[in-house]
Amino acid sequence: MLLKFEFNPNIPIYLQIIAEIKRQIVSGEMDPGGKVDSVRDLAKNMGVNPNTMQRAFAELERLKLIYTERTSGRFITKDSQLIEKIKAESVRGQVSDFVEIMSKSGFHKLDILRLVKEFMEESENE
Predict the structure, then answer these.
(1) Which long-range contacts (CB under 8 A, 24 or more apart) does 89-98 make?
(2) Phi and psi for 47 in degrees, rounded to 5?
(3) Which of 24, 81, 99, 126 could be joined to 30 by an S-S link, Cβ 3.0–4.6 Å?
(4) Among the residues of the chain, which ranges form H helices?
């Protein structure tokens, strides 16, 4: 599942783990209903303390993105509506950040729309 990646020293590690697992769920890299590796295995794989991984899992369970079956382990939610909601929230946040940066750079809404449209048309031709 998760591969070792570079952690940002300015953001708590458990938050970065949560963000990465969310990304893998909404992108389909982790299948709904799929089994999640153990805390120990993931912690070792990512080079983090098992308590850090447990904290991330506790938050993901609170968000209902993973669930625990007492004797079988942890699994990814099968709730496709929840996954789509998380995906929409993520994309909305990224678009909001992009628009804010563009606005601060002096671009107006119509300029931003034009640039995005041009970008999309160019990427279709590649």
Answers:
(1) 90/22, 90/23, 90/26
(2) 75, 35
(3) 24
(4) 13-27, 39-46, 50-62, 80-104, 109-124
CATH architecture, domain defined by 13-78: Orthogonal Bundle (1.10)
Whole-angstrom distance between the N-terminal and C-terminal Cα of the chain?
31
Domains of the chain by residue range: 13-78, 81-124
| pTM tops 0.85, yes or no | no
**In tens digits, what is the pLDDT along the chain, a chain of 126 residues?**
665 678 999 999 999 999 999 999 999 999 999 999 999 999 998 889 999 999 999 999 999 999 999 889 999 999 999 999 999 998 898 899 999 999 999 999 999 999 999 999 998 887
User: Two tokens at 121?
Assistant: 């048309």
